[in-house]
Amino acid sequence: MDFNRLSTSTLLAVLVLTGVGARAQSESTAVLHVVALQPGRAVHVDGRRVGVTPLFGLSLTAGQHQLSVSAPDSLIWTAQPWEASIRCPAGRATVVHAAVRHLLWVTSNPPGAVVWQNERRLGETPLRVEVQRHTATPLTLTKTGYIDFVLQPPQGRNQLHCEMQSALNRPVNGMRQPVVNKTRGLTGGALSFLLGAAGYWMKTRADDAYEHYLHTGHPTRMARYFKDAQSYDRWSSALYMAGEATLGLTLYLTLKDFWQ
Fold first, then answer.
1. Angle between helices 182-215 and 219-259 (to 10 degrees)
2. Percentage of the chain exceeding pLDDT 90
3. Average pLDDT of the chain to the nearest whole number
4. DSSP states of 221-260
5. pLDDT in tens, 170-196
6. In this structure, how many other beta carbons lie within 10 angstroms of the beta carbon of residue 101?
7. Where are the beta strands (DSSP E) in 14-148?
8. β-strands 127-132, 120-124: how paired?
9. pTM, rounded to two decimals
10. DSSP label at 213?
């Protein structure tokens, strides 16, 4: 029989149909059956290796025992063995389903997203969680201002990363709402205003210097006032151009965000 193709429910049915689950013959002994989703996992009872999964008809002394089933990827640090303390009644068969679990590293951008599984809060990202191998239960990531994100635990991987999407980017009636960087817009507007104000101040200084140039008759002062007027006028032009360029760039980036 190829146990690799058998599901857990099929294995349990085999136990019943083949009579493996019959009562133990002796009142001082018990029978243990161990199944797992993946075959070939090493089974240890009280620290002693007794076989691999699926393990049927193991006779042992009735009472409390420590059972351990190795993880599917024993060489990976995130893989964790399944361990449990089980009670095996005398004269009866005990069936154990070892749901081997492993550690999963969950991260998100931005961090701080709350991780939920089956409506149970596991913690906030970055988070290391213990999940069952081959589980069909997804993980849900939530964060205020962002759209909820559903992650399916991967097969053969030990890390999940989620790029959270802003709630402002959620489609409405088939159209996406624009995401505008308000901080960039305000900063660009303020910088444009300051550059324009500085340019205006330089322009007034240039006008004052030129007025002094026109109304003075001293040659040395005329040369100095004319030079000052030229310098202030150049600075005024440069500041005006910088302010206009900043304002234009801010408007371009804002429209790009709006229509992207």
1. 160
2. 19
3. 78
4. HHHHHHHHHHHHHHHHHHHHHHHHHHHHHHHHHHHHHHH-
5. 554 544 445 556 777 788 889 999 999
6. 17
7. 29-36, 42-45, 48-52, 55-61, 63-69, 79-80, 82-88, 93-98, 101-109, 114-117, 120-124, 127-132, 139-142
8. unpaired
9. 0.39
10. H
